[in-house]
Amino acid sequence: MNVSWPLARIRVLPNQVEIRVLFPLLWRRFVLWRRDIRRVTFHSAFLSTGLRFEHDSPRSPECLVFYAIPPRKLMRRLAEMGYPTEESAA
């Protein structure tokens, strides 16, 4: 699932990442617990770059990509909070 603002919102907390997506007439919420996130990587498509969350959460889409502006700022924030990211591995 590929999502972006303004039809999706992301909230980064110490123990979880919450992504809320606006489907027709209602918000759907996906919670990725820190323990379920294997890695966050950059994902490029056409003219934009997003963050791909590789995770083991059975209640969230297997492929979950959030397009943020700017994506590096969000990746840096995730790394600062201790999530396994490309930046924390570099």
Task: Explain how this protein is built.
The chain is α+β, with helices and mostly antiparallel strands and 90 residues long. It has one domain (2-89): PH-domain like, CATH 2.30.29. Helix content is 16%, strand content 50%. The protein contains 2 helices and 7 strands. The chain has helices at 71-80, 86-89; strands at residues 2-4, 8-12, 16-23, 26-33, 37-45, 48-55, 64-67. The strands form 2 sheets. Strands 1-7-6-5 form a 4-stranded mixed beta sheet, covered by helices on one side. The protein has a 3-stranded antiparallel beta sheet with strand order 2-3-4, with no helix packed on it. β6 (48-55) and β7 form a beta hairpin. The protein is globular and about 35 Å long. The termini are far apart. The mean pLDDT is 88.
Helices, strands, pairings?
Elements: E1 2-4, E2 8-12, E3 16-23, E4 26-33, E5 37-45, E6 48-55, E7 64-67, H1 71-80, H2 86-89
Parallel strand pairs: 1-7
Antiparallel strand pairs: 2-3, 3-4, 5-6, 6-7
Distance between the termini: 27 Å
Strand order of the largest sheet: 1-7-6-5
Choose one word for the global shape.
globular
> Percentage of helical residues?
10-25%
Question: Can you identify the CATH class?
Answer: Mainly Beta
Task: Write a concise keyword list for the protein shown above.
90 residues; alpha+beta; PH-domain like; four-stranded mixed β-sheet; three-stranded antiparallel β-sheet; 7 strands
What would a concise description of this structure say?
16% of the residues lie in helices and 50% in strands. It is of the alpha+beta class and 90 residues long.
